[in-house]
Amino acid sequence: MLYHWSEALVRSFHALNVVHYITFRAMMGLLTALFISFLLSPWLIRTLKTKQIKGIIRQDGPQSHFSKAGTPTMGGTLILFSVLVPLLLWMDWTNSFNWISVFIFSGYGALGFWDDYQKIKHKNTKGVTGKGKLRVQIILALVAMGLHYYLTPEASTLYFPFFKNTSLDLGWWYIPFSVFVIVGSSNAVNLTDGLDGLAIVPIMIAAGCFGILTYVSGNALIAEYLHFPFIRNAGELTILASCLVGASLGFLWYNSYPAQVFMGDVGSLPLGGAIATIAILSKHELLLVLIGGIFVVEAISVITQVFSYKTTGKRIFRMAPIHHHFELKGWPEPKIIVRFWIISIILGLMGLLSLKIR
Fold it and tell me: Is the pTM of this model over 0.85?
């Protein structure tokens, strides 16, 4: 909105030309999201408590979690608002990448909201059925990626990080591949969101890393210098990544141990989907496995646990996802959280090495 208004006024007010710079709008988006989060979080927490919108604690989960009963949930609604409002202000809405990413973010947010609402209404942890949730996720991702494939000629090209000029054209197979990435990332973040602040910091780190990578990919001069694939329009995704960082940082203030509010599916599903969409549109899909390594490990721990139990009757971990395994081994919750954060920082830095190692 402000970006397009500035275009009409820049001839009269030359100072508004700064709004055309992605770096300026990215920083303003981050600060706007952070400001909204800090401004509205206390009101939201009070409202959730008043409405008795409390998190449902798993009965088969660690006993230490029972003390968290009564903590309000659906705090992710504020994350949605804190991201979407700055995007309306600072994004270039003539860019198709922006529409696709916001479609996934808001669509998955709506799904997460409905899932949380069902849990609160029926006072259990089931919510929307797993198959139903997966079906909606796939449909939304199919629409977005089908549109991306149709509008972007180079959409089907898969680039390999750390290798110069190494790529593979997947053709129309790129659509199911990208759908798998988005749905997988969304659910992996959802699985990670089991301890206070555990998921939001890795999200913030991943968003920050992809913000840098998308800016490089969308700048022809820098991309050529670093032997990066130049992706026209990808630079605008830096705005979304920055807004995710700002909203996550503001939410962390209230979600850090001991949490005053839980994120809920309304936060975890769209955050995971948004990170994956940024990676796909900027052609850094494979780096998502590295930068989002914490989410990958959490998802794999659940998959292997289920597979092992169904085939052999034995469990690999004391409880899955893997953060619960460490809880049952006696690790204090804050130690698990901080160590997972440290690993996320290391993985993010390793992903950024792709800027120089090619």
Answer: yes
